[in-house]
Specification:
Order of helices and strands: HEEEEEEEEEEHEEHHHHHHHH
Strand content: 15-25%
CATH architecture of the largest domain: Sandwich
Oligomer: single chain
Structural class: alpha+beta
CATH class of the largest domain: Mainly Beta
CATH superfamily of the largest domain: Galactose-binding domain-like
Distance between the termini: 22 Å
Amino acid sequence: MSIAIGLVLASVGEVQSQTNGLSIYDDGLVNGFNDWSWASRNLLNMSPVHSGVVSISVTAKAWEALWFHHAEMSTADYASLSLWANGGEHGLQVLEIRSFLGGKVQTGYALSVLPPNQWKQYTIPLAKLGVADVTNFTGFQFVLRAGDTDMFYVDDIQLDAKPPPSAAATKPKSVPPLMVASAAQPVQPTPVPAMAKMTTPAPAAQTTEQAIWWIAGSLLVIITLLACLVLLFWRKNPASMAMVKAPGEAGSEPSSAEEWRQRAITAEAMAGKQGQMLREKIMPELAEFAKQSLVQGLYTQRNSLLETQQKAQLALADLESRLASLQLPLQERIRAYEKRIAELEKEVETQGEEMRELTRATLMLVRRKLEDERATERTQSRFN
């Protein structure tokens, strides 16, 4: 069974370099790397796993090693080697990384001791391994140099890409006209990104809470504009103040209660007239603006929910595709779904609000798929 799974992984694993590097082990050896190891190992270990579905388990004696060989290749595009390792129950193993040029071993580099029951990432510059910017690189060995021979685990091995050059470094220098033809260089093909391991997708555009705050802010702006318009109208209408002073002489003080009453009636009439003008001219436009703002907010919220659902479905489809490529038995698939559910539940507790919404949607879909698999298992057991 393990041989058949390995053949499937070999056919599926021929992928190109990722945007962040070239994978060596990604749920199986990929990109032309082959297993030349002489230590006891399992390239399809189900638990523990750093990411994806499987990892590598190793039970090695002193100076036994994993060995991943490749035909001669260039390392000009890569800066370092990175991997994740787990020391297992007791940990404290010491691994030495050895690189090869044209089949000849180079100077080794010892890692710090592996932590027990915990994943740790190690990143080693290719310059320290003696294979930086070469054209005849042929692979790596991971040698158990010291420590217990208890089982340890390795996952997510890759060559990390060099960082892009800065703008100053990429700015072309002036070239004399007669030198242009001789300085021209052939264009190198751009590497095609590889299929990365399934991770939680990018955050959704906006959450429900953000849409609500956006609508509330729009309404606050509308109220502020209305208050400013009313203030400007009163300040730029001196005629209304002159009318308040009638029927007495302009600038004179009221001489009787009757004049005070007339002035109050006139002011009340003017205020009512101006209020009616505001309602007829401004309020319809403000109401239309508020309606459009509310509709836009609801539309944005709906798009955000749809996008989150689509990304959750893509994440589930990716997991199903990987499990299908491994051709695992029904019981193994159920354990894989249960493991992914546990990972997602931990992510919900630690992630930010935007990622949490997406993770919850993915978790709901994976739970449904697990129920379907369990129903299939019950049906098979009934007929057997």
